[in-house]
Write a structure and sequence with these properties.
The complex is a heterodimer of chains A (245) and B (166).
Chain A (H helix, E strand, L loop, with lengths): L12 H8 L7 H7 L1 H10 L7 H8 L16 H4 L16 E2 L19 E8 L2 E4 L11 E7 L5 E8 L3 E9 L6 E2 L3 E3 L7 E8 L7 H5 L7 E8 L11 E2 L2
Chain B lengths: L7 H20 L3 H17 L7 H21 L5 H8 L14 H13 L2 H11 L5 H8 L3 H21 L1
Helix pairs in contact in B: 1-2, 1-3, 2-3, 3-6, 6-8, 7-8
Classes of the chains: A alpha+beta (245), B mainly alpha (166).
């Protein structure tokens, strides 16, 4: 069977893009000398762009990614220093759900391109609330709240999980694809010396987590699992926190 | 552009973003859809910059990533109707898919679009919208040319069946 797609006499756009970047495949250079249409395409690639550059600049302020390193959602670190949110202090048990009033809106400090599922962690310590930097150790009594960019996902579940207790569902709810939201609940850090391990599961519908399989990277195509490790002060052998991509 | 790092990123953005945006516009005629996906591609590029260093690999990575993001968004129905209609034209043959009398047909096309394996869609998009040869598709998708031929043949068969059933 042959493809119904009619081949053209023009090089592919990939070949033209590469020519724009200085890699000219055999025949492409000669074609470009005679084809006004392809000349026009390559010339347009050289036109200056301004759209999205602010987002790009914000992204450059982040650390390089590592395959197993911390990933922060959508360039939010650049805005971290200026973010001040307010949680009501409540909750006494380990990662106790709080009915604290919601934080101030953060839409105005969103930096970066929307569309890819991401998680921000906000920590309230004393009277100060700041965006977690991915390393800071948390103290007993600190409160944690999550802000999510669902990307294209429609459902989220948040679990706390420890070897002693197993997974504990902290929150589940629906999401509006593409709309950043701050979860209505905050959780308080207990006095256990062990790091807090949160798991954010994005999906299209409620799911039953398969922890071993999913933690090994075997999530279904319509599910994204983001582990978050929050270290605590004073804990023995504490390691830097992390958010897996 | 030996590497993409630090201060080089802005220069990379100015040089590469136009081609990413052009690639996205070929797939998504909805203006905001194309810009949104193009920016997301750059978020990912920045995260992966340690592994995407030379222009040859960079362009292949950008084509692969942009195509997959578009498919993902189409399946999650987070694209405009204009863009979705254009993507559905992959399975059509010279039919004006904007005519209202083809609404039912387009609904069926959407269903088929959601059912076609992702790699078949990737190959079809790269072939039809981006004019990539089978060898280029093989490079972008990191598969053999025989696999590309098989993917395109299967997609063509599905599209043909669809056109006959509509």
């Amino acid at each position: 069977m042959t493809s119904p797609y009619t081949p053209t006499d023009h090089p592919s756009f990939l070949a033209l893009d590469r020519a724009h970047l200085g890699i000219v495949a055999p025949g492409v250079g000669e074609h470009l000398q005679h084809c006004a249409e392809c000349q026009r395409y390559v010339a347009e690639l050289a036109l200056p762009v301004s759209s999205g550059l602010a987002s790009a600049r914000a992204i450059t302020s982040q650390r390089p990614a590592r395959k197993s390193a911390r990933i922060w959602g959508s360039g939010a670190l650049a805005a971290a220093a200026s973010v001040t949110l307010f949680f009501a202090t409540q909750g006494e048990q380990r990662l106790t759900t709080s009915d604290a009033p919601g934080p101030a809106t953060t839409e105005d400090v969103y930096v970066g391109a929307k569309g890819f599922r991401s998680v921000w962690v906000y920590v309230k310590h004393g009277n100060e609330t700041r965006l977690w930097d991915g390393r800071q150790a948390l103290s007993s009594g600190d409160q944690v709240r999550l802000k999510l960019d669902p990307g294209g996902y429609r459902h989220v579940e948040v679990y706390s999980r420890s070897e002693a207790e197993g997974p504990v569902l902290l929150y589940k709810g629906e999401l509006s694809p593409g709309r950043v939201m701050t979860l209505p609940e905050a959780w308080e850090i207990d006095d256990s010396p062990l790091p807090e391990r949160l798991f954010v599961i994005f999906s299209d519908a409620p799911v039953t987590p398969k922890w071993d399989e999913w933690s090994a990277g075997g999530t279904p195509p319509n599910v994204a699992l983001l582990p978050i490790v929050l270290p605590k002060t004073g804990s023995t052998g504490a390691k830097p926190g992390s958010i897996q991509p | 552009m030996a590497t993409i790092d630090g201060a080089a990123f802005e220069d990379c953005y100015r040089r590469v973003f136009p081609l990413v945006l052009a690639k996205c516009r070929r797939m998504l005629p909805g203006q905001s859809d194309a810009t949104d996906v193009a920016q997301e591609v750059f978020v990912r590029l920045w995260r992966e910059r340690e592994w995407v260093r030379d222009p040859q690999a960079l362009t292949a990575w950008l084509y692969r990533t942009a195509t997959r993001l578009v498919i993902d968004r189409a399946r999650h129905a987070t694209l405009s109707q204009v863009s979705l209609g254009h993507l559905q034209s992959l399975a059509e043959s010279g039919v004006d898919d904007h005519q209202e009398e083809h609404f039912e047909r387009r609904r069926q096309l959407q269903a088929i679009f959601n059912q076609v394996p992702e790699q078949e869609l990737e190959a079809a998009i790269l072939n039809r919208f981006d004019r990539l040869t089978q060898a280029e598709i093989a490079e972008v998708l990191d598969v053999g040319e025989r696999t590309v031929r098989r993917l395109l043949d299967r997609f063509d068969a599905r599209a043909s069946t669809l056109r006959e059933s509509c």
